């Protein structure tokens, strides 16, 4: 992969970490954002050339501070990965408006701001990629998931809206909806866990990174405004309890 300039949010651990590591191994210039200082310190120690930003993406001011550094040091980014997200499941009567707002601010408002600032700085007609990380929760729900599901459904809609707004540029905008991606000890999973998937296993962060890599290739430009579900077939499988 060409030495692209890449910005990944929520890269202190989990899926974001795997995506940042993938780009780093491809010899890209990688800049990561997270409020998890320990996770960022781990990444900086392991990958010395990686640039880190401690920031809370719920704050527009902190997002703009990140972009000021990008503009000063790089000018612009070639690739933006909107991965940062939070989930907090509470019963409907106990879900406060503040809780709703916080989840929407991180999961939906922040990707919009990052994408807007990406587009403002991007040279016209030059290769660009925005990939948003949503969730299959936008089509599957369980009690207490109103805010999270709504934020991820909004992110899918934001994806095709951005793709339309950026039509005529060389920037494509796509969205990945991961299913069950295990970020802990894979050995702790049971046979029943794996059996819920048509692919016969629970997902790993590297599964999402592989699709990000594909979408960010120059010859993947005919995929635009799309949502790609990466869930081992789980949303297509009837499960009887």
Radius of gyration: 17 Å
Percent range of helical residues: 40-55%
Q: How many distinct helices?
A: 7
* Largest sheet entry: 7 strands, parallel
What kind of oligomer do you see? single chain
Judged by helices, strands and strand pairing, the structural class is alpha/beta
The low-pLDDT segments are none
CATH class: Alpha Beta
Strand content: 15-25%
Which strand order spans the largest sheet, edge to edge or round the barrel? 3-2-1-4-5-6-7
Find the CATH topology.
Rossmann fold
Indicate the overall shape: globular
Task: Let me know the average pLDDT.
Answer: 95
> Which H/E pattern describes the elements?
EHEHEHEHEHEHHE
CATH homologous superfamily caption: NAD(P)-binding Rossmann-like Domain
Number of strands: 7
How many discrete structural domains?
1
Span of the ends, CA to CA? 45 Å
CATH architecture: 3-Layer(aba) Sandwich
Structure commentary:
The protein has 241 residues and is an alpha/beta fold. The protein has a single domain (5-236), classed as NAD(P)-binding Rossmann-like Domain (Rossmann fold, 3-Layer(aba) Sandwich). 40% of the residues lie in helices and 15% in strands. It is built from 7 helices and 7 strands, in the order βαβαβαβαβαβααβ. It has helices at 14-25, 37-46, 60-73, 97-121, 146-165, 191-195, 205-215, and strands at residues 5-9, 29-34, 51-54, 79-82, 128-133, 171-178, 227-230. It has a 7-stranded parallel β-sheet with strand order 3-2-1-4-5-6-7, sandwiched between helices. Strand 2 (29-34), helix 2 and strand 3 form a beta-alpha-beta unit. It starts with a strand and ends in an 11-residue tail after the last strand.
